[in-house]
Structures are given as structure tokens and as C-alpha cells.
Design goal:
The protein is of the alpha/beta class and about 425 residues long. About 45% of the residues lie in helices and about 15% in strands. The longest helix is centred in the last third of the chain and has 26 residues.
Length: about 425
Amino acid sequence: MKPSDRSGSSLYDSDVFRMACRQFDLAADLIDLDRDVRERTKLPKRCLTVTVPVKHDDGVVRIYEGYRVQHHLSLGPTKGGIRFHPGVTIGEVAALAMWMSWKCALAGLPYGGAKGGVAVDPHALSRRELEALSRRYMQEMIPFVGPSIDVAAPDMGTNEQVMAWMMDTYSNQVGNSVPAVVTGKPIAVGGSEGRREATGHGVAYLIKRQLESMSLRPQDATAVIQGFGNVGAEAALALRGYGVRIVAISDVSGGFHNPRGIDLEAALLHQAKHRTLAGWAGGDAVSNVELLELPCTVLVPAAMERVITADNAGRLRCRVLAEAANGPTTNDADLILQARGDVEIIPDILCNAGGVVVSYFEWVQDLQSLFWTRAEVLVKLCAILDRASEAVERQRVRLGCPRRLAALALGIGRVAEAKASRGLFP
């Protein structure tokens, strides 16, 4: 194996971690990153693995495995979500922490990347069990987190209520209210206006920019969205606001296709009542695999990583691929799409950056105890996304490379510059 094909770590070794490392190596080679700082920029600084015991409603104590990976702290505290999902592994968490580092640097935020997770199906838990899991996970993390150390946020399987429980747990431990220890909280306890819709709003805004750059009117465009959680649903609503017709949606239970347009409100009501889209009658049933290959102007993978692969990349029928999820396109699929040349990609570290940008706004507001309106938040968000998008386009032209590689090179280069400037502590 060539060095660029290795993850460089047996601890995190997994398909998704190797994928992130491969992306890093391609970008580091492109900008000729100095060897003295290369591996320090690539590999995570710190990881924590904990056992999380939870007493279930039936009286049985069950043990879950939890993780937190902090990629680097050269620019400030680490920042990243916590996901509750049965498939969580330490390799996945490490890859997500790496992507978060590059995303924060690309957006110009004073953070390193982090990610956490617990291997659990949150839908199988009662509310009391979910609260117990959330609080015990945060209790185990307390020595390693804090407003100036590591700031968590919601991710797949978690939400603002989980963040409120975690903030309360940390605050009770230290003896005073510390809202800035997590973001994505309810507004009542220090959350920010606009945070809930931030990621999806940012995805839709960047799609609109991309369509306009291609001389395509949003009113003439259609979109397919894989993943109808917070990000996918908010992106769908925002795209519809721009005039885009949403023709297919899906969640873990499967998807629905309606060429005339999906009734988003009806889908959301059904999902709120039944917790999934299963059994909805708003379109023709399709699998998540079939949904990715439907004809559309914009395809938005907004669920799990590695869903666009070498097997299906040649069959995508979209003009724009907007990566609302982290790492949805494998390295082999990327090469196929580059060779095709007919799909414009908005890479994940740019496309879904709206969430961490508004998380940063929430953290700043909590620290200064001064809060902004929703309009102020969204105007500031779009300004940062504009700046990052324009920087990526300049980098793409300067280096003569695909948009993903340009975005990675910018983010990784900024992290490496910070590490080189600070030097190596003896």
C-alpha cells in the first residue's frame, strides 16, 4: 500500500476514517504541506472512550459505549456534535472530528473539530431513559469539556432537549449555569434564534447560489432529499421558499417520490406523529437507494456518510450534488463524478457549515449574555457562507482542482498554519 492509502492509525482504522485520511493526503499533497506539521495536522489529538450505564424502565441496567474525539486545539476550543446511533464507532467519530476541523477553519471560526457519540438506538428508549443516557454521557465527559475546552452540539439522534439535559448536568457539577458548554439548546436556556434551521438554511442558500451561477432559475429546479431529519427537512422548506420543487424525500424507513411536488407540511405532521415516514401516502414508495438515482436538478444527501459510491455514482441524474451530510460521497465515487464532468458538487465542509457557524454565534451570545434576532443571525450566516464559498472558488481556479479539493486545501492549510505558528511544545 502507498503511504497515502493508509490511515496512519490503527486505533481509528475504519472505512470512513481511511476516507477522511485519503482526502487529507490529496489536499496536503496539492499544497505541498511540510512533513514536520503534516501528521500533527492529520491525526486526532485526543480521544475518550467511556461506558454509559443506564437503568431502563424494566429495572435492567444496560451498558452503552460512548466516544469523544478532539481533533486539534490550535485555534481555540474544539467544537462538534454528539450523535446517538446504533452504528457509531470510534473510527466514524474520529473522521467526523477531522471534517469538523477543516469545516471550522474554512469558515474562519476559532475552533478545532470534535465529535462524540453513543452506540444506541435513541428511538428504542423512553424519554426517561434518553434523559438518563444523555446526563450520564455528559457526566463522564465533564473533565474533558467546557466553554473554553470542547463545546458540544446536537447531531443525528440528538436534539435541543438532549443539549439542555447535558448543559444542566455540567452546570450542576460546576455549581453555576454554564450555557456556553453546549450549543443547539432551547432558546429558553441560552439557545440562539435561527439555530434549529441553520444547517438546512445554509444548504439551501448555497444551492441557490450554485443554481444562479449555472444560469438556472430556482423556480425551474427540482430537488431530491435523502434524509428527512432536522437538516433535510429544513433544507427542503428553505428550498421551497426559493421556488424549488421538492419531488422526493426519505428517512431511515424509506422514501416517497411525487413529481408534482411533496407536501412537506403533511410529511412533517406524519413524521411527528409516527416518528418515521413509514406508512405515509404522499407519493410513490421508493427505497433510499432508488431515491438517489431519481432525475432531478439537485440531489441532497442529508443522512449518513458513504451513500454515494462507485456502484451508483455513474447513475446519478442530477445537475448539482449538495452534500448536506458529512462524507456522503466516497473517494472512488468522487473520481467517477469528476470524470463525468456533468455534476457540480457543493462539498460537505462548505455545504453543511451553516450549523457550526450558528453554533459559533450561539456560543458567542452565551459568553457575552447578549442575544441577536433571527434576522441578524441569518444575515451574519449568509455573509460567512458567501465569504467561504468565494474563497473556495478562488482556490479552485488558482490550483486548477475540483471544488472539494479546493475547500479541503483551504481548511487544512489554515489548521497547519496555526500549528506551525504555535510550534511544537517540548
